[in-house]
């Protein structure tokens, strides 16, 4: 005897109807429906009946993706005015800047260190509706200032790894940054900590005169899976990936093939069209698209994650590639593969975008503009099935369609 389950109305909490779903992990790139139940992805299929759901959102003409993962931001917001980014006004409270650009998971890039992570957790992570993960600095005090970043006696691989072992649900890696010495001590100690804790290392590299070699960094110091951020930077005392003849240096491709992860990390000074455009044209694409969001970048050329993703559309990357580098790829890099996709049973972290056509200007970190004809706009963001951002009210009824109730 065959038993047929009858699906009743209200079986689904929320149905996103008729959107173009892009889910790189599962190879989906087509118009489909997406059903949510109890905060999880319940079903992804064509023509799911509306009468099976308590609530329906018409996503016709819009793109539906996993919630974005911004793998490089600074959200250790605080009041220490002497600090650069650790417990400082320069870091941003995450919920004010994430959902409105489709971001549901943000990864703080080393603002705290092994001495200060617990304060960061109490102060920010425990109170945020955004999912906040973290790289912690190899410097115990975190990213307090350039002076503190030179203190090699505060770069302790064992204590850094120990802190990670105490908070594995929150800490995803180690950050080395802003070192002005000629040696590779911060990177080597970060890698040592990463090896103990089995997590990747992110490196913000440069600042020594003469420049330290990025070839040595990629091929001798870092491991496969470790991350080079600010890939398309053009900064004093920082070796570039594109040479003076606008050619991507051959060892860059070798490093990427070896497994070095190249992260955008736009920030206030680390994305230059003269580096990005020839790189993309010559086939050197970033592995991860991230903002380096902080007080000084949000109102500059960066703006937000959707504006940054639009820049790569302007550089002729496909929307599918841009979404993959903002969702599933960073999830893999930080070893959080439960995130960044729309598999049945996954957390219902979802972003819905319109793709506007027109004449748009996109600004790099040197105040140079490139024109583009496409721009992503975050219309709706859901975190664990809950609507956190709705730009144009596509999830709610018209004001005159139902009586008001107290």
Question: How helix-rich are the residues, as a percent range?
Answer: 10-25%
Indicate the multimeric state.
single chain
**CATH class (first level) name of the largest domain:** Alpha Beta
What is the mean pLDDT?
96
Structural class given helices, strands, pairing? alpha/beta
Distance separating the two termini? 51 Å
User: CATH-wise, what's the superfamily of the largest domain?
Assistant: Metal-dependent hydrolases
Q: Figure out the total of helices.
A: 9
CATH architecture of the largest domain: Alpha-Beta Barrel
Structural write-up:
With 406 residues, this protein is an alpha/beta fold. It folds into two domains: 14-65 and 346-390, Urease, subunit C, domain 1, CATH 2.30.40; 68-333, Metal-dependent hydrolases (TIM Barrel), CATH 3.20.20.140. The chain has nine helices and 15 strands. It has helices at 117-123, 157-166, 185-197, 214-221, 250-258, 273-281, 305-314, 319-324, 328-333; strands at 14-23, 28-37, 40-45, 56-58, 63-66, 68-73, 103-113, 131-137, 171-177, 201-204, 227-228, 261-262, 350-363, 369-383, 386-390. The strands form two sheets. Strands 1, 2, 3, 4, 5, 13, 14 and 15 form an eight-stranded mixed beta sheet that branches. A seven-stranded parallel beta sheet has the order 6-7-8-9-10-11-12. A hairpin with a 4-residue loop joins strand 1 (14-23) and strand 2. It is globular. The relative contact order is 0.15. Residues 1-7 have low confidence and may be disordered.
């Amino acid at each position: 005897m065959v038993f047929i389950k009858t699906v009743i109305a209200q079986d689904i909490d929320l149905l996103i109807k008729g959107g173009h779903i892009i889910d790189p992990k599962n190879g989906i790139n087509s118009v489909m429906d997406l059903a949510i139940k109890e905060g999880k992805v319940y079903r992804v299929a064509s023509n799911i009946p509306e009468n099976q759901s308590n609530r329906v959102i018409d996503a016709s003409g819009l793109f539906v993706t996993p919630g974005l993962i911004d793998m490089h931001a600074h959200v250790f917001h605080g009041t220490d005015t002497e600090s650069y980014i650790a417990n400082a006004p320069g870091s941003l409270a995450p919920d004010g800047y994430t959902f409105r650009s489709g971001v549901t998971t943000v990864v703080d890039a080393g603002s705290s260190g092994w001495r200060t992570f617990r304060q960061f957790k109490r102060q920010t992570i425990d109170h945020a509706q955004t999912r906040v993960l973290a790289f912690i600095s190899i410097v115990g005090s975190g990213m307090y200032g350039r002076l503190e970043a030179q203190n090699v006696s505060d770069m302790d691989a064992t204590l850094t790894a120990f802190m990670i072992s105490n908070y594995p649900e929150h800490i995803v890696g180690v950050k080395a940054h802003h070192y002005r010495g000629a040696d590779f001590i911060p990177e080597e100690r970060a890698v040592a900590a990463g090896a103990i804790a089995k997590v990747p290392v992110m490196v913000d590299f440069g600042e020594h005169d003469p420049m330290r070699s990025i070839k040595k960094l990629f091929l001798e110091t870092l491991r496969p899976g470790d991350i080079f951020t600010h890939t398309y930077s053009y900064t004093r005392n920082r070796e570039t990936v594109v040479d003076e003849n606008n050619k991507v240096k051959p060892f860059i491709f070798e490093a990427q093939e070896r497994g070095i992860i190249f992260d955008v990390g736009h920030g206030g000074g680390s994305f230059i069209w003269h580096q990005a455009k020839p790189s993309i044209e010559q086939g050197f694409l970033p592995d991860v698209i991230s903002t380096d969001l902080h007080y000084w970048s949000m109102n500059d050329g960066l703006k937000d994650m959707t504006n940054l993703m639009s820049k790569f559309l302007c550089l002729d990357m496909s929307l599918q590639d841009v979404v993959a580098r903002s969702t599933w790829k960073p999830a893999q890099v930080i070893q959080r593969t439960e995130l960044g996709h729309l598999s049945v049973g996954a957390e219902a972290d979802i972003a819905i975008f319109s793709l506007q056509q027109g004449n748009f200007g996109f600004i790099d970190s040197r105040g140079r503009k490139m024109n583009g004809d496409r721009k992503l706009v975050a219309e709706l963001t859901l975190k664990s099935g809950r609507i956190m951002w709705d730009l144009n009210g596509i999830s709610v009824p018209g004001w005159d369609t139902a009586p008001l109730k107290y």
